[in-house]
Design a protein that fits this description.
By secondary structure, the protein is an alpha+beta fold. The protein has four helices and four strands, in the order ααββααββ. The protein has two domains: about 5-55; about 60-125, no CATH class. The chain is about 50% helix and about 20% strand. Strands 1-2-3-4 form a four-stranded antiparallel beta sheet. Helix 1 (about 5-30) packs antiparallel against helix 2.
Length: about 130
């Protein structure tokens, strides 16, 4: 699974949770405690299993990428990541204006999209 399919899977789990929660709470508050709690338990276990399976999935190797270290073609897999990229000017300004309280919630570093590649031939990992 790639990062995009993990995102879609996460969205589906979130939507299913939003649809399941009112039903389960309705059952619990109407007196059907066993049914409501088992409804929540089954959904929660399903979401955990989906999360574990999507975390264990390995990205497919891209046939077009060439490893810059060992020059092997077809053994490199790439995934999208969020990389820390220094101090955000907007967050630093907010920290000054709020007396530093915003730093506790957001931190100062900004994040930007990057791609992390890994060669299964030589084991090297790099970000571009």
């Amino acid at each position: 699974m790639n990062a995009k399919s993990n995102f879609h899977l996460g969205c589906l789990v979130a939507i299913a949770w939003l649809l399941t929660l009112p039903v389960a709470l309705g059952l619990i508050f109407s007196g059907n405690y066993e049914v409501g709690f088992s409804f929540l338990l089954v959904f929660f276990l399903g979401a955990v299993i989906i999360g574990i399976v999507s975390g264990l999935a390995k990205p497919n190797a891209n046939e077009a990428l060439i490893c810059p270290h060992c020059q092997t073609k077809g053994k490199v897999s790439a995934v999208s990541i969020m990389k820390k990229a220094g101090i955000s000017g907007g967050k630093a300004t907010a920290a000054v204006l709020t007396g530093g309280l915003s730093v506790l919630a957001t931190g100062l570093s900004r994040k930007e999209k990057a791609t992390q590649a890994h060669c299964s031939n030589c084991g090297s990992t790099w970000i571009y």
